[in-house]
Design a protein that fits this description.
By secondary structure, the chain is mainly alpha-helical. It is built from nine helices and no strands.
Length: about 240
């Protein structure tokens, strides 16, 4: 099992100057910086957690614990990976720990029976227009609900890959890094996940994937408030 607080070097897009500034301000105890980091990454971490845990409430708990672990070990973030990738890797480990505490052991690096899967991974990140007619919006909502339900029924080893690749549109390298598996495993499991979903949903599965497992509103505010309160209790937030 990888250490959730440290991240080895990875050849992916590193942190931007704005992100580096946010991290430095958070290290100095800036409340606004902590909040900005959470607002920017809440949806990513919620979706990442839902790749492992079976329901939204447990995923929200994972998101909160992820921030507390990450903010406690911010000195371990060196900027050689994107901040979101670093946080997602921690979230995977927190989610696995949460499952283990409930007596469910999930091994994301275990071999799976997908040797007969195709070797080429098609890139099919399809988007629908942001502004649709009301009937199209209703249709998208129905498809999104069906998709979320179908994704939720996937085994975690496939669900975690599909969410990171199709929903969050991470690269193969980033997904492999977050899950601590090889690029080949990511490609094979993504193909298998798509095949399983097609059995239920047909050819439209990825047209609405980007809308799945939204994290906003009350849940977003609850995570920010809870983490800031705990950081304040620990004395990690300085006045002003």
């Amino acid at each position: 099992m990888f250490d959730s607080a440290t991240v080895p070097p990875l050849i992916v897009t590193g942190s931007s100057p704005a992100t580096a500034d946010l991290v430095e301000r958070a290290r100095s105890g800036d409340k606004n910086a902590f909040e900005a980091i959470m607002r920017q990454h809440n949806r990513l971490l919620f979706r990442t957690a839902r790749g492992v845990v079976p329901d939204d409430a447990e995923a929200q708990d994972v998101v909160q614990e992820t921030y507390l672990r990450a903010f406690t070990h911010l000195d371990a973030y060196r900027g050689d990976a994107a901040l979101g990738t670093w946080l997602a890797r921690i979230a995977i480990n927190v989610a696995l720990d949460a499952r283990r505490k409930r007596g469910v052991v999930i091994s994301l690096d275990e071999p799976d029976n997908t040797s007969d899967a195709p070797t080429g991974e098609p890139m099919m990140f399809l988007r629908t227009p942001e502004h649709d007619a009301p009937d199209h919006q209703a249709e998208r909502s129905q498809v999104r609900e069906l998709l979320q339900s179908a994704i939720g029924r996937l085994p975690p080893i496939y669900r975690s890959v599909f969410i990171l690749r199709a929903v969050e549109e991470m690269s193969v390298d980033e997904t492999a890094f977050c899950l601590h598996v090889s690029d080949a495993v990511v490609k094979t499991r993504y193909l298998r996940a798509r095949s399983l979903l097609r059995d239920t949903l047909g050819a439209q599965i990825e047209a609405h994937a980007h809308d799945a497992f939204a994290f906003a509103g009350a849940r977003c505010d609850a995570v920010v408030a809870s983490v800031l309160a705990e950081l304040d209790r620990q004395g990690r937030i300085h006045p002003g």
